[in-house]
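Key result, reporting period 2: structure in, sequence out.
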């Protein structure tokens, strides 16, 4: 109905775990976006859930593809990359681990802790999904256009594709050095009257620019040259690992063009990193919908104003968050690029 995929198609990669309610909100927001019929939605799962599959199969407004991460905790509950009975407990001391002779006794992280599978999976899945899209999927094998990365607990405005296209135009002009386009922001307050047309050109930072990231094969190939840095860096977060790549491997640090009036929102109050008592999606959704409704008249700008924002002080990567000291995680991550990338 909507094909074929061309280089002007927008590929949207959506990482899915098991939060059906969040995903439903995201899909509704995508369905209401202008030009959504010119996209390919790739849903990448680390859990097989028939309710989620059924929801995705019901999408009738764009091209859809589902892929499933093959090394998930669901498919490997008692063996690596899940947790086996012979793995070292997270908080055991290295000396006690040696006495216990558990499998990964020699590989604690930089804080002296041993791996937790539920945390390592997200980085593995992100890396696998990206490698599949840029390297292994037939449908995107020759694709040189833009890939937008979303997650199941994101929500988009109806003009997000329109704004992304404006940002791509700026990339061809004054924002040539921008490798990553960013449609989300973590600012608590924003003024759409002023900010809806503004995009900030600055150095890419994992804590500020990891939501609604868009990049092309050209940028991905640069990242891929730093596979070792990504896969061996002792941090279980894919975005922190990408910052390590930017600061310590790439010749030129990653630069981003970020919209100051966000077009992608984070609605997930609960998940791997957040354990709030009240996980009701309705509270956050009401807030996000209020923000978007209030900004309605400022959506679909005819052009963007680029504001250059110099980094105030030299960015130094703090010590990683750990959770990624296990050599088996390094090997699994590295092996995901084999077959089309010479390490």
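The corresponding designed sequence is given below.
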């Amino acid at each position: 109905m909507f094909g074929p995929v061309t280089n002007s198609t927008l590929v949207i990669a959506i990482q899915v775990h098991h939060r059906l309610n969040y995903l439903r909100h995201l899909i509704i927001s995508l369905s209401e976006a202008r030009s959504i019929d010119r996209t390919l939605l790739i849903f990448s799962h680390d859990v097989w859930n028939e309710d989620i599959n059924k929801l995705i199969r019901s999408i009738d407004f764009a091209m859809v593809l589902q892929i499933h991460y093959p090394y998930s905790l669901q498919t490997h509950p008692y063996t690596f990359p899940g947790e086996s009975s012979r793995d070292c407990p997270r908080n055991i001391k290295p000396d006690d681990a040696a006495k216990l002779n558990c499998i990964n006794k020699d590989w604690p992280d930089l804080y002296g802790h041993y791996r937790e599978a539920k945390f390592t999976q997200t980085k593995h899945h992100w890396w696998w999904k990206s490698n599949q899209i840029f390297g292994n999927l037939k449908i995107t094998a020759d694709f040189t256009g833009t890939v937008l990365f979303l997650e199941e607990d994101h929500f988009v405005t109806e003009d997000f594709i329109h704004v992304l296209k404006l940002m791509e135009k700026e990339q061809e002009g004054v924002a040539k050095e921008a490798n990553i386009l960013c449609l989300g922001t973590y600012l608590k307050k924003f003024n759409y009257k002023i900010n809806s047309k503004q995009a900030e050109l600055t150095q890419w930072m994992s804590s500020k620019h990891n939501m609604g990231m868009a990049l092309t094969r050209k940028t991905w190939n640069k990242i891929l040259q730093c596979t070792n840095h990504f896969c061996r860096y002792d941090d279980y977060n894919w975005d922190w690992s990408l910052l390590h790549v930017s600061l310590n491997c790439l010749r030129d640090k990653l630069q981003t063009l970020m919209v100051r009036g966000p077009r992608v929102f984070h609605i997930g109050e609960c998940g791997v990193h957040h354990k709030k008592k009240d996980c009701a999606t309705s509270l956050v959704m009401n807030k996000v919908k209020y923000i978007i409704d209030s900004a309605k008249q400022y959506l679909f700008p005819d052009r963007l104003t680029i504001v250059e924002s110099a980094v105030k002080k030299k960015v130094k990567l703090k010590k990683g968050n750990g959770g990624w000291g296990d050599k088996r995680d390094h090997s699994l991550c590295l092996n995901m690029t084999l077959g089309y990338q010479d390490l």
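The radius of gyration is 20 Å. The chain has eleven helices and eleven strands. This case is discussed further under Risks and Mitigation.
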